[in-house]
Amino acid sequence: MSKSRKSAVAQPTVEKLKGWKAIGDYLGIGAATAQRWAKSGMPVKREGRYTVADPDEVRQWLGREAHMPGPAYVATGNGDISAALKQSITAVRRDRKRKA
Length: 100
Fold this sequence. Notes:
- The protein is mainly alpha-helical.
- The protein is 53% helix and 9% strand.
- The chain has one domain (14-99).
- Strands 1-3-2 form a 3-stranded antiparallel beta sheet.
- Strand 2 and strand 3 form a beta hairpin.
- It is elongated, with a radius of gyration of 15 Å.
- The relative contact order is 0.14.
- The model is unreliable at 1-11 (pLDDT under 50).
């Protein structure tokens, strides 16, 4: 796989999502929906007056909620999700073969 292809698949490096708007923007949902998801178990923390979330923890949580074998891929506006989709399909097929 070429270097440019790998970088297109990699998740953007986001250290910490700070505030409901940033969390919602990262997930492509509104701030109110992000708050509702947090009440349902999405991992968030309070730091001072802000609510913060670690993107990796959020992706892991999304993967568990979607019953995926690993973390969910959060598509951003400039990302190429075709490779991630292929990886997800391969992982599901591999999991089905193990269960059979």
